[in-house]
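Please fill in the sequence for the structure shown.

STRUCTURE ENCODING:
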């Protein structure tokens, strides 16, 4: 009888080890595929169109940041220059040399720029789209790549329009006129259905930036779509919700990995905390709740950083510490203990796998609730950041912006 029980225990241990190793390998492969997915974005246009400032806005960097793309009145990009995302090393935005030269040839330009490395092209213009923009778009499309037109500096256009006709000024009408004119210019050069987006790099939460992000996400494959949603700054309520939804799809992978670790004999639940801490920290940064992001936003909207930080009300948003994470895990683990006891009584050979199940429940609960609370924090921060600014912009008294900051 004792020998039979010993054989059963050995068999159970062998099965557990094989299951754990197989599941661990598969889950880690899924996570690696997601985290190593690359996104290469090419940004081009004429000198002075605002390419570099646009890149810095997408990266969430101020122009003065040491890792930001340099800006200036003259062309500052002599060759393709990559700028790595500060949080996602697999994402790079490429600042390409200007296209506004008399000898510009689209096919030759693309060969020199290394067309194949880029996932898509964003063509930036600040006044009007010209023949070379259309030629470049046609060449990009002919080679199987996507392209998008961004009409930059629309905040300056609105300010200038209001100055010219203060009593008859209507913002929506002016924006519509700009869009129609851009489409007309591109159609005149032979493009049938050009995608044009009106953007201000200093006010991404306004105009067409959200529509641009939605369009890019819709036209990318699954993993690249996820990476794009994480890499772009969350400047609208819609962006926050879409980022949360994309992250939520992958919670089960992190929770299952925590389950696998806890299923290994002799390893307690708390050994998952470093992995979970890293995940939670990446969530917080994705929503712009870290000190750098809050400081950059405060600077952009001319508000004290402490005013924005006061809108971070969640437990982990205010205190992302091991003690706080452990407390939430312990609370969540209680929910699974009763069911675990019943399961252990019926399947005594798989005690460690049952412990892994408790760990899965706890980790999933932690990540799910943290994701919701971080998204709510981000919404409050955005509302506070842009509330007063929107009131001021309602009168459309835009101060003139010096052109030299818009390269």
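FILLED IN BY: designer on duty
SEQUENCE:
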């Amino acid at each position: 009888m004792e020998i039979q029980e010993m054989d059963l225990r050995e068999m159970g241990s062998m099965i557990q080890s094989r299951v754990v190793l197989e599941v661990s390998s598969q889950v880690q492969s899924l996570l690696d595929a997601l985290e190593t997915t690359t996104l290469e974005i090419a940004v081009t246009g004429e000198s002075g169109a605002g390419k570099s400032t646009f890149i810095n806005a997408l990266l969430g960097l101020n122009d003065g940041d040491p890792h930001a793309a340099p800006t200036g009145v003259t062309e500052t990009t002599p060759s393709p220059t990559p700028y790595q995302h500060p949080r996602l090393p697999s994402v790079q935005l490429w600042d390409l040399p200007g296209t506004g030269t008399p000898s510009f040839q689209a096919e030759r330009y693309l060969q020199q720029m290394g067309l194949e490395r880029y996932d898509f092209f964003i063509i930036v213009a600040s006044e009007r789209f010209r023949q070379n923009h259309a030629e470049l778009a046609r060449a990009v499309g002919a080679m199987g790549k996507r392209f998008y037109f961004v009409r930059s500096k629309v905040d300056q256009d609105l300010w200038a329009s209001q100055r010219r006709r203060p009593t008859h000024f209507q913002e929506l009408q002016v924006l519509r006129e700009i869009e129609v004119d851009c489409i007309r210019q591109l159609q005149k050069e032979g493009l049938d259905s050009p995608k044009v987006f009106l953007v201000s790099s200093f006010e991404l939460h306004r105009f067409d930036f959200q529509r641009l992000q939605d369009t890019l996400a819709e036209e990318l494959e699954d993993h690249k779509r996820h990476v794009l949603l994480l890499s772009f700054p969350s400047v609208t309520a819609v962006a926050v919700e879409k980022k949360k939804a994309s992250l939520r799809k992958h919670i089960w992978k992190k929770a299952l990995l925590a389950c696998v670790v806890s299923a290994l004999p002799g390893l307690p639940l708390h050994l998952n905390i470093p992995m979970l801490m890293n995940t939670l920290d990446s969530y917080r940064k994705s929503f712009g709740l870290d000190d750098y992001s809050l400081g950059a936003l405060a600077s952009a909207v001319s508000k004290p950083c402490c005013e924005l930080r006061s809108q971070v009300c969640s437990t982990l948003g205010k205190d992302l510490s091991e003690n706080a994470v452990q407390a939430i895990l312990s609370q969540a683990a209680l929910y699974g203990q009763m069911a675990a006891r019943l399961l252990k009584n019926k399947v005594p050979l798989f005690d460690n796998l049952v412990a892994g199940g408790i760990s899965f429940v706890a980790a999933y609960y932690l990540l799910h609730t943290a994701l919701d609370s971080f998204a709510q924090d981000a919404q409050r921060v955005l509302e506070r950041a842009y509330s007063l600014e929107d009131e001021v912009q309602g009168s459309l008294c835009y101060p003139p912006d010096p052109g030299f900051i818009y390269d």
